[in-house]
Amino acid sequence: MPTAMITGASRGLGAAIARALAPTHTLFLAGRPSERLDAVAAEFGATTWPIDLADPAGIETAVEPIVALDVLIHNAGVAFPGRVAESTVDEWRTTMEVNVIGAVALTLALLPALRAARGHVVFVNSGAGINASPGLASYTASKFALRGFADSLRNDEPSLRVTSVHPGRIATEMQEGLVAYEGGTYDPARFLSPETVAKVIADAVHTPPDAHVHEVIVRPHR
């Protein structure tokens, strides 16, 4: 079976993506070692890869054994709710290190393996990567940067397929924190389910090889 590496697969959308791809792909679940990641891996017979996106220096060594990779899905990310005046430099630094620099470092380390498989790189971006989201200053900036990196990768690596997925708000733990910041009541029915977004991503991955999906935008139908 083709191989797929997923970051941030220990919960929420990442676990849903693993579930959507498990029937058709051998899964590599990348992230910091944790019981939750181990549990997801056990459910799907997947392999865990201990990778800390905030530590670019260790990424290349961690993925060195991978010689060919069909799909790389960048799903891991952090968000610190806050408007510009409320944000801190440390929050900006952490957001950029994980959401952008970590994704860049992992892609560069796996580039030979992706080229060998004529692979597909999927960036789970956000609506905030198209239109700035109020109360998510550093997160919005990181998603604009991630979109720029995806576009550059697509231009510079013609043998690869590169897709940016821009979902609306998803019913996840991260969303609960944002709703709390906004002073609202969390109702998962208002948002996209992780399973719905995972299916959209899996559909992009399963696109026939003569097609190249550059960008997918999906919003709640409510």
TrEMBL record:
Q: What's any one GO cellular component for it? A: membrane
Instruction: Give the UniProt keywords, A-Z.
Output: Oxidoreductase
- InterPro entries (alphabetical): KR_dom, NAD(P)-bd_dom_sf, Sc_DH/Rdtase_CS, SDR_fam
To which protein family does this belong? Belongs to the short-chain dehydrogenases/reductases (SDR) family.
Q: Where does the record place the Ketoreductase domain?
A: 2-173
* NCBIfam families per record: PRK08219.1
Superkingdom is Bacteria
- Single GO MF annotation: oxidoreductase activity
Q: Which PANTHER family match?
A: DEHYDROGENASE/REDUCTASE SDR FAMILY MEMBER 7B, DEHYDROGENASE_REDUCTASE SDR FAMILY MEMBER 7B
Q: What is this protein called?
A: Short-chain dehydrogenase
Report the SMART domains cross-referenced here: PKS_KR
